[in-house]
Amino acid sequence: MSKIASLSRILDDETEDSDLVMVDGADALAAEEEDDEKDRQRETEREHARQRAGFCVECEDQPASLLCKTCADAFCEVCFHSQHRKGSRKQHLSTPIPHDDGKNELKKPRAVNRTGAGASVRIPLNPDKKSANNSNALLNASASSTNAAALLSSLKNAAEVDSDDEDGEEEEEDDAEMLDEDEAPAKKSKPSKGLDLSLTGTDVANNVAGGKVKVGDWYIDRAKYIPVRLTLSERKYLRLLEAALNVSEYTDKIDILSYANKTRRQVAQIQELCAIISGLVLASDYKTGQNLFKERNFEDNAEFFRDIFELGRRHKIMNPEKMRNVYGKLIYILQDSQIPEVKDMLSFSLVSPIKTVYHVLQAGGALDVLEDDLIVAATKEILSTREGGGSRMQIKNEIKAKERAIEVLGQRYATKEISADGIKQCLYSIGDNHAFLRTNRDPCDKMIGYLKDNFKPDKGEGAFSLAIHAGREGARLSHDHKKQYNYALQSLTLWREILHDMFMLWMLSEGDLLSDENMYRLRDTGQGLNRMQAAPKASRLMHTILHRAQQKVGYWVGSSVIHMGDTNVPNALMFIDKYTQIYRILLPIVRCLEAIDELSENNGGIRRYFDSEFKGPENLKMLILSDFFRHAFDGSGADNFFSAGSCIDGRLTSAWNWCSTIEKKNYFPVFLLSGFVGFDGEGFSS
């Protein structure tokens, strides 16, 4: 008797040709229902298998670390706190899931795989004993600025030792220490006492200094999101790109309501921009332009255009204050080029991955440079005397020591695939990351310090109380002194954590914006037509950052809603642009506070002005700080009452509103005396 074969069974190839007969009516319906039931059972089994494998039941892509005592489901830490514990599940408690790895550790130390995921390779745990000893000596020498001369001397000795090691005597020792990845013993790194990562801008610095993790662990993780600094030739093309974007009217012709075919308009505008770039290249370098565009075919030069647009994106990430007028236009052009219909008509893609330090070193086979202890001295940021550095002679010696460290690392790890100059470029890029963190993130640390040092949560009486009341002086929240203290503290802590991971957040935001599977919709958000687009990658990282900030402050005041992909924050570009403005708000305030004592000591007239108007410099500082902590976090600044409040983005909106009223403050002349010209980040005199 022949079996009845339904359409789903035929498509799933579960039958043989001899078993197939055509059916209809009730028999076919019953067969379909039977197949649907089997599919549901398979899906249930897969879900249970995933859960048994240790994945979070909510996101299904992160290892589960917490078990809900009420539901008996496994979650990752972020999903449990931000997704599961809501509404009626708010009182659910969790217990950590033990990891069966022999010692109940979350992660085993392992050797780093240089060739890719899943490959078993043999790598030396200590490829160069003499170099390692030299690196330790260098770290000890770099413990403080007073030892800069000793560091320079050690660097010279290290270079001489490296040049003498070319006889091949250490190759046998290296081969003897080669181990498979699975055979690598778990060693606990104990860096030298002189190891100082205070300028590297990392929360892991304390763990590194305490010997809990290795120096290379932090640098490897961080380097994956640090863009490579532009070379001189790339900067020439960057200027051409900016010039072409400045004259382009792309968004004016695309993001409008029109009955004309939008795909054709997009393709025409993209081709016009490529033509402008081609003409500028030809005008600036005739031979190069002639070789590139002699056939006048955009498809043949797709790689050239991808590189041009990639270096523009890379430059913007490293320098948020640059390309303020054209970066949004660049992203929207690349966003449209990812639409399948547009990509088919163009016949090539304009999007390529950002070139990062990690991927450049990985392609050159020089990832070991990130694990060399000497990298701390090679990427250290040298501060001026005014910024907290040493004397002029000490700074000069530190610069020489740093440059020599870079030379040693470049020569030591250069390969056929990457030259010494390429390694130096990567080291300079890591140093740029440290400078970015000091400029953007450190003002948050300083404001947190001002708040903790000058205000106590249990003492808020008098003129410097932080208490606010809805309806008074523009405030839309009502907090007593203690609640407002904690509200300001947690907001600054959150900003600090966001800026700490800004490069990672930026790259994930670009990944959401330029995804060919995540299309946008042109919508009227109440502030004109905007491209509304979901941002799942950036949103997930933001929830992780929020959870980390909540753990630091202990508890949370106000809402924890993150607006992204809605009428308040239409897309990831708007989101990332909001948080690049934080240092523009905080840096002028910090500079003003730091300048008050200097102005008072160096000018008798200004001293008398401070005494007569503000009862002295210290009272003036408290006046500025108390006003900022009150009204920069009072829920104001939105167009209507319902859009204002204590959500994550509302805190930044309130700070913007405070900045817009700075001219009305009685202490505004003090800002002018300190060199303040505005919160836009341009023209500030240092």
UniProtKB/TrEMBL annotation:
Region listing for Disordered, in residue ranges: 15-53, 87-134, 157-200
Pfam families named in the record: ANCHR-like_BBOX (PF22586), DUF2009 (PF09418)
InterPro entries per UniProt: CEBP_ZZ_sf, E2_Ub-conjug_enz, E2_Ub-conjug_enz_C, Znf_B-box
Extent of Acidic residues compositional bias: 161-183
Compositionally biased tracts (Basic and acidic residues): 38-50, 98-108
Superkingdom in the source lineage: Eukaryota
Domain B box-type residue range list: 51-97
Keywords, in A-Z order: Metal-binding, Zinc, Zinc-finger
GO MF assignments: zinc ion binding
Name of the molecule in the record: B box-type domain-containing protein
